[in-house]
Amino acid sequence: MQTVAARVKQEGWTQAEAASRCGVTQPRINDLLRGRVSRFSLDALVNIATALGWRVRFNLEAA
Q: What structural domains does the chain harbor?
């Protein structure tokens, strides 16, 4: 979420522009930019990252 928020700020996108580029609604971008983590599933965040052209990798390690 922080990386997406940083990209929005870096590009100078409005929330509406960011929403369009990420394939979500403006209220969802608002939630993301305000750090409302509980409102996003991992799947939703992966979809947003993919819409921005990013490749997502996970590294799981045993505790």
A: 2-51 (1.10.260)
Do the beta carbons of residue 53 and residue 11 sit within 8 Å?
Answer: no
- Whether residue 25 is predicted with pLDDT greater than 90 in this model: the reply is yes
Angle between helices 15-22 and 42-51 (to 10 degrees): 100
> What gap in Å lies between CA 39 and CA 61, rounded to an integer?
25
Return d(Cα 13, Cα 35) in angstroms, integer. Answer: 17
pLDDT given for residue 44 in this prediction: 96
Which of left, alpha, beta for 53 (phi over 0: left; psi -120 to 50: alpha)?
left
Mean pLDDT calculated for residue range 35-56: 95
Q: pTM of the entire structure? A: 0.85
Grouping H, G, I as helix, E, B as strand and the rest as coil, residue 52 is coil
